[in-house]
Design a protein that fits this description.
The chain is mainly alpha-helical. It contains 4 helices and 2 strands, in the order H-H-H-E-E-H. A two-stranded antiparallel ribbon has the order 1-2. A hairpin with a 2-residue loop joins strand 1 and strand 2. The longest helix has 25 residues. The chain is elongated, with a radius of gyration of 17 Å.
Length: 103
């Protein structure tokens, strides 16, 4: 918890999980049609793909924290054993996340 690598991974996961939570809620609405569901899925994929280039809300905050090396009043120290998740390596395969395959 006290390493910038962990905090970085945490920020990235929070951004992704936040988008997946929104998608989940949209798909669970009784009024959502198949076409709307597919649009929601594609939108979420685009947003997660965009994290490769543009950091999400939490990752932006993590970038600022890395400069001061303090998170929630905890001094961060680099842990060379931890390798952070590289957001540029995210690969979301739309064909594998198809609403038709879910049904």
């Amino acid at each position: 918890m006290a390493s910038p690598e962990f905090v970085s991974d945490l920020g990235l996961m929070c951004d992704c999980l936040q988008e997946l939570s929104i998608l989940s809620n949209q798909l669970q609405e009784r009024t959502t049609t198949l076409i709307q569901g597919q649009k929601h899925i594609k939108r979420t994929i685009r947003i997660i793909e965009s994290f490769k280039v543009t950091p999400g809300e939490h990752m932006s905050e993590v970038s600022k924290l890395k400069e001061v090396m303090v998170f929630k009043n905890i001094q961060l120290s680099t842990n060379t054993k931890l390798i952070t998740i590289n957001p540029k390596q995210f690969k979301v395969q739309e064909e594998k996340i198809s609403l038709w395959k879910i049904l």
